[in-house]
Amino acid sequence: FPFTEPSVEVDVSCFACGGCGCRLCKGTGWIEVLGAGIVNKKVLENCGIDSEEYSGLAFGIGIERLAMLKYGINNIKLLYQS
C-alpha cells in the first residue's frame, strides 16, 4: 500500500480455485480481503497535519471480495453489471 508504512493485509485462500492459482487470484492462490497500515508522515504533512503531533491509521475491507466468497461469484465484474 503506497500511502501506509508499515502495512499489513489479510488474505484468504482463493475460493474459485482452492488455492491452486487462477485468473481471479492472478495465479497466487490468495485473495486479499483487508488492508491496513499507519499513514505515511509525508501524506499527513501534505494535508497540513503536523506529523510529529498526529498519526493516522488507514484500513479497508474488500467488501466486494467478501460478497464474492459468500455468494460463490468468481468474477468481480458481475457485481457491477446492471
TrEMBL record:
Domain named Phenylalanyl-tRNA synthetase: which ranges?
1-81
Task: Tell me one Pfam family matched here.
Answer: tRNA-synt_2d
UniProt keywords (A-Z) are: Aminoacyl-tRNA synthetase, ATP-binding, Ligase, Nucleotide-binding, Protein biosynthesis
Report the SUPFAM superfamilies cross-referenced here: Class II aaRS and biotin synthetases
Write down the top EC class of this protein.
ligase
GO terms for MF = ATP binding; catalytic activity, acting on a protein; phenylalanine-tRNA ligase activity; transferase activity; tRNA binding
Q: Where are the transmembrane segments?
A: none
Enzyme Commission number(s): 6.1.1.20
Biological-process GO terms, alphabetical? translation; tRNA aminoacylation
Spell out the protein name for this chain. Phenylalanine--tRNA ligase subunit alpha
The record lists the organism as: Fusicatenibacter saccharivorans
Originating gene: pheS
